[in-house]
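Many introductory courses stop at the sequence. We go one step further.
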Amino acid sequence: MWDIPPHSFYAMLVVLVLLLTATACRLILAHVKAEKDFTELRHRIQSWWWMIGILFVCLVVSHTAAIILFAFISFLALKEFFSIVPTRQADRRVLFWAYMAIPVQYYLVSIGWYGLFIVFIPVYVFLLLPMRMVLIGETKGFIHSAGIIHWAVMLTVFCISHIVYLLMLPVLNLDAGRIGLVIFLLFMTQFNDVCQYIWGKLLGRHKIIPKVSPNKTWEGFLGGVLTITLVSGFLGPYLTPLTFRFSLLAGLLISVSGFIGDVVISSIKRDLEIKDSGSLIPGHGGILDRCDSLIFTSPLFFHFLYYMNY
């Protein structure tokens, strides 16, 4: 019914099989260790089903559906950011213009206007917002407030919008199509989180940034980097136009930048003395908790791919 490129179709099947396996393992654990509470694990897996289901449906239906989905994710992330980071009462009217950046940025994605897409927020929005703040006339806390609003728009709109712009790039790998690029980026980023967690649990001894994230270890970080780099080397040529050698580099880039994105958002939460950025996604926390690594991997992977192939 839908024309899904074969490599992307098989990649989707693999993801669904992994989810089925995780669900089966959770049911077995709940049966074998009935005395333990697996509620959080159940919520976490159920949320994955919903997130992946919605993503796959939007990717398969049309590019427009996918663009609307990621625009909505940017909206939720920006709203969540402003809900946890204090802003001045005087900036309420400025926040309106920050939100207005979302439809414009994603419209530029939809028409494939790369030249304006890449400068709209870093140039035009970043100049417009302080100008609007000046017109309000409140100077106390001006620099602090401008920094917060700029950074929020950069992380939640500009960075995330790079994911969906992958759907607008010319198709160079016919067997994977444009969907393959998105699946590769999302899968490797999330798989990186899992690998660093598992390696850290198995071998973790030396803490890497204890003041920011006490559970992060050098062993977990390096294990994740090696695993993701190798897996990317073999998966990259299957889902992207990258060769084996450049797929290794893409994996290295995703694993390192994903770790940085994770600890950067952790630093924000520690500064604010909160555990999660929200409670929208059961078992995961908020949108920022789920997208922390993606915020950094998306633009870096996009520009690496763009530089190497377009």
